[in-house]
Design a protein that fits this description.
This protein is mostly beta strands. The protein is built from one helix and eight strands; from the N terminus they run H-E-E-E-E-E-E-E-E. Helices cover 4% and strands 62% of the residues.
Length: 106
């Protein structure tokens, strides 16, 4: 049985960070994160992978990234990066606030 608090985050998003737009997929069953980049990063990466979690008490959505790849060139970078978003409910749905970038549901 999936946690109802996690189910509401499952779906497709856009995450704008610096000058790169990421098309994001959050899966509630495995809490996996996958993003495709609108353009190659400075390291020629085109996708990133990780996990996500929601802290109900703090109303905080955390994206924990562990890998960036470029399948075309066979490249992989391992690392650890976290992005945190404060979650707020509005009449139009959820909003995600952060100082690092913009996350919005598609």
């Amino acid at each position: 049985r999936l946690d109802k608090d996690l189910e509401k985050f499952s779906g497709d998003y856009e995450f704008e960070l610096s000058d790169t737009l990421r098309t994001v997929k959050l899966s509630s069953s495995s809490q996996s994160y996958k993003a495709s980049f609108s353009k190659n990063t400075k390291n020629y990466m085109t996708e990133e992978w990780g996990r996500w979690d929601f802290d109900k008490d703090r109303q905080l959505l955390t994206l924990s990234l562990y890998c960036q790849t470029n399948e075309k060139y066979g490249l992989m970078l391992l690392g650890s990066t976290k992005y945190e978003f404060t979650v707020k409910g509005t009449p139009n749905g959820l909003t995600f606030e952060s100082k690092i970038g913009v996350l919005r549901r598609k």
